[in-house]
Amino acid sequence: LDRFGSRKSMLDQLDRIVSVAQQSTRTAAAGKVSMFGMIEETAPTIFSIPPAQHDPATLKQCYTWERELLGVYFGQHPLNGLAHRLRERNVIATSEFTEDITGSKVTVGGLLIATRTVTTRSGQSMLYATLEDLSGTVEVTVFPRVFDATRDVWETDRILLIQGKLEQRGEGFQIMCETVQQYAEDDQISMHHLCITVPPLQDPVSDRLRLENVAKALRNAKGSDTVEVRVRTSIGTVRLDTSTLRTQWTPELEERIRQLLGREAITVSIFQPAILAVAS
């Protein structure tokens, strides 16, 4: 269809095209012909679309129009060609969801095709979203704490990487979102570094239990983020060997550490290309 002209030009001229067609129909219905129409047969109305005076529509705009008008993508899907790049980020397809991995933390990547914001009884905002990949769709639930921190990311037609807990819902699945980021071809994967400071030890039994709970929380959050643990003692600060420990930062994990060790016990840094930005 693109051989008929720029899609953007045709859309911009749509009202004019409809107007000319309606006028031609009314003229024919009234039995009116022009002076030149009395010679042999009436010539058909010819309408030409002027050349575009602006930039052509982007692929993203074309994809959006196709889905809005047809319900499907007439051309290629926006995710075509990205499957291998998403695999590099440990993304799994919606077709790979099974009961065996229900309750596990997964990472999905896809096109955000729908969102719905609701207000909880406590007056907070949360989000329900639909993510589409090459094999299907999945519903995503974003609770208030995560939604407040990521509100600007949830724009339809963006390609998002979402990490969260996979749960079964009826005959389908849903993801309880913990982290989200917009996919960009030239982006590196965001990495977190957790610096945990353990306050001075007081009671051996309770302190050991707290440290065991901290270690358990870090190990259960499987991922590739690095951890540094420092213990304050009467003779100074001791740094523990955590070179082999890897975890996955989430707001819930950070809050759990604060509950166990205190509000000031953890700082999180995000590694981005060439910069180190303090997140909290």
Describe this structure in words.
The protein is an alpha+beta fold and 280 residues long. The protein is built from seven helices and eleven strands. The strands form two sheets. Strands 6, 7, 8, 9, 10 and 11 form a six-stranded mixed beta sheet that branches. Strand 7 and strand 8 form a beta hairpin. Helix 6 runs antiparallel to helix 7. The longest helix is centred in the last third of the chain and has 17 residues, at 204-220. The radius of gyration is 28 Å and the shape is elongated. Mean pLDDT is 77; it is low at 272-280.
* Secondary-structure element pattern, one letter each: HHHHEEEHEEEHEEEHEE
Give the terminus-to-terminus CA distance.
51 Å
Envelope shape: elongated
User: By helix and strand content, what is the structural category?
Assistant: alpha+beta
Q: How many E strands?
A: 11
What is the share of helical residues?
Answer: 25-40%
Q: How is the main sheet built?
A: 6 strands, mixed
